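Researcher: Good morning. I'm working through a list of sequences from a screen, and I'd like to move beyond sequence-only analysis. For each chain I'm collecting a predicted structure so we can compare shapes side by side. This is the next one on the list. No need for commentary yet; just the structure.
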Amino acid sequence: MPARQSLADIQFLLTEVLRAPAQWQALAPFADTDGDLAAQVLDEAAKFVDTAVAPLQRVGDEVGCRFSAGTVTTPPGFRDAYQAFWQGGWPALACAPEDGGQGLPTVLECVLYEWLAGANHGWTMAPGLLHGAYECIRHHASDALKAQYLEKVATGEWLATMCLTEAHAGSDLGLVRTRGVPQPDGSVRVNGSKIFISGGEHDLTDNIVHLVLARLPDAPAGPKGLSLFLVPKVLQDGARNTVVCERIEEKMGLHGSPTCVMRFDDATGWLVGESHKGLAAMFVMMNAARLHVGLQGIGLLEAAWQKASAYAAERRQMRAPGAKDTSLIQDHPAIRRTLQTQRAWIDGGRVLAYHTALQLDVAKHSTDAGERAAAQRWGALVTPVLKAALTDQGFHGASACLQVFGGHGYVREWGIEQIVRDARVAMIYEGTNEIQAIDLLVRKVLADGGQGLAALLAALPGKAPGAATSARRHALVEITQTLAIAAHSDPELPYWVADDYLRAVALVLLEWAWCQIGTASRRAHGRASTGLADRWTAPAQAFTQWVLPEFDLRAAILRQRIAQALEFKPKESCSA
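Model: Good morning. Structure tokens for this chain:
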């Protein structure tokens, strides 16, 4: 029961490490949301995840979605669980009360979706885009569209899709060919095909709100010519729109989520936002989704870790060093290293993701312009890091947890192999991890010569770092500055090293997260006179010993490539 098992850890990270209640209560919309209320919400969320969603994990994978003549039937139990989900108010946790939401802090929604992904990734794909669609419609749609669609999407009564990709246009949205033709009544007729549309057709809700990127007749070529249209499955008069699901994909994982090929045949839709500025509106949706995809990485790794940890506590094999008899495999150093290393990623990743969620609310609601600017900078720089680093670890860490089972992990009985298969896609969708790295380095860090990143590192909350931590932050700033200079000599350089750079940033941020965990656990341990600090000791040591040294590797790669671009020879080189 993953949600229940991680509830105490998450409460500690929110209340003791991040002091989250004090942060959100400083913002007017959340002034009345104290820690006790948040704890009650999370407790009820954990019960829902464990009882309604987690039991459907296996049937979702083994039965999967069924396609017939344009209709999609989801696995047994999926519709009932989703109806209970939206009727219980769970999709609307962080939506504004005036839109039918509960007006709670974003971080509570993030915890809920992390749990959902870990419990049943396939099912969670259905409501996974609601938060982004809600923000997109709220900020960019006309009053008429808001009146008809906003509350339905906010509450989750109607689900939504994000229709970007075409067969010839994956990440290069400038190649999109789908067209929208304006009509005298103010609507448009949309024609074209989209692929890889999660939840493009299903039986979970009575309507589906498609947000579609397309071109108006007078659109310029390239991404700047794209507009965004809202195209519902069912029109206001109850008639079925001419939106057709042609097939669903056969996939490596996520069998409980229909990935659809969608065709729009003169489908009726309406412009969202301004003409030819569809990407700006769509990115509101994509940026919200990217944080949640990072949380999927955490949730899936947590689920894999729990399975591996439970197995290691029962399975006996050989003698561990110093033991006199056969030992539980959790006593063998190789297994302890695996489990503690993945625990270090989960705990540190949670601190970063939850802090990011808190910053999103600061950016929206703080009355201090400086606070808002700092929060916006954090979100812009850290979101691609979280999406890439945490989904990468979600997959590779889940694979490491499968290794704990030996041959048993490779067979379906234990459930760990499904997590590995399901986790793989998170490294691809919502912008591949390579694109996240390019976005971070090229579009955000180098755009101002690294000043924004340097300011972010200098302003990290908490007490002053130790010498080693400070040295790594300074090294990252120095690498960034020289990289900006070297890029003038070699314009391809940032694209070659973007992945290494993102990993280096992730490790520095994780080190900060673990410093905060260590401080909080020592403080709480001393106050309560309990063994609380022991919970965090082993993963903290694993982070220092097995994770953080990667920073030196990435830094060496970056420095060597920078030196080559500047036509310098590294001071130390290997000779054959």
